[in-house]
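sry for the spam today, last one i promise. struct tokens for design, 266 residues
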């Protein structure tokens, strides 16, 4: 079986250049579907100024435009891959993790007119969000782990971010329960890399105190070491693009913005 694995698209402008040939059986996407520039830039600029919520820097009209562009860029990515009439499995990245929940609250509180991503993609019957789910396709077992805020990560990178701490206390136990109960699978599709592998932060726009640190997940690493899935596909830390063996598992950080991998499962 041949699969196409697409790294974090981030609303990649030339997404149409990535094609699923006729011999592709399945398409996997590692998360972060939406265009990230506006949200990411606003987040880091606000952080540098000590502003905890970047949305306060935008007018209602600007927020509406930002979030509409954000959602529809993700829909466009899904629409492109759905047209190949192959199963498309994806997980949420951090842009549609905590941010999506906050965005929906912001939309409601400010009475914004922003499309809902999950409603928009319901028309694509071959598309499935496999976050915290196990699926079987042609005898191949695949499990998905979306982005989740981790107390381990927050304590090292963002110890004073109470909002993230609150999300971590809700999200992390769900992931731990899922991975603890998950038996061995053939493919683990996870937004976050296993900790210590393909996860070193060095991107120039990251805060200085983040650089040189591992931003992967110990929960994911524990599962990989204990259950030994044959393949692990991840993204999130884009500068970690590459491949490595972790025990018996072949781990690939696919990258982002047009990066992809075609692989024959053996």
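last one done:
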């Amino acid at each position: 079986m041949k699969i196409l694995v697409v790294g974090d698209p981030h609303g990649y402008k030339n997404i149409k250049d990535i094609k699923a040939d006729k011999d592709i059986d399945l398409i996997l996407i590692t998360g972060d579907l939406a265009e990230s520039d506006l949200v990411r830039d606003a987040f880091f600029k606000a952080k540098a100024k000590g502003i905890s919520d970047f949305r306060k820097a935008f007018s209602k009209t600007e927020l509406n435009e930002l979030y509409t562009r954000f959602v529809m860029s993700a829909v466009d990515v899904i629409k492109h891959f759905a047209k190949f009439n192959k199963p498309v499995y994806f997980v949420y990245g951090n842009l549609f993790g905590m941010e999506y929940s906050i965005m929906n609250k912001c939309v409601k509180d400010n009475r914004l007119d922003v499309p809902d991503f999950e409603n928009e993609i319901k028309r694509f019957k071959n598309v499935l969000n496999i976050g915290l789910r196990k699926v079987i396709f042609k005898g191949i077992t695949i499990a998905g782990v979306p982005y989740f805020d981790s107390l381990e990560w927050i304590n090292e990178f963002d110890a004073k971010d109470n909002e993230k701490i609150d999300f971590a206390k809700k999200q992390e136990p769900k992931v731990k329960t899922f991975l603890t109960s998950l038996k061995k699978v053939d493919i683990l599709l996870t937004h976050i890399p296993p900790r210590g592998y393909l996860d070193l932060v060095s991107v120039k726009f990251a805060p200085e105190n983040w650089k040189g640190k591992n931003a992967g997940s110990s929960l994911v690493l524990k599962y990989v070491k204990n259950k030994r899935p044959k393949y692990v596909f991840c993204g999130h830390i884009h500068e970690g693009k590459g491949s490595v063996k972790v025990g018996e598992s072949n781990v690939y950080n696919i990258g982002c913005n047009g990066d992809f991998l075609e692989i024959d499962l053996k």
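The chain is about 35% helix and 20% strand. ok im logging off now
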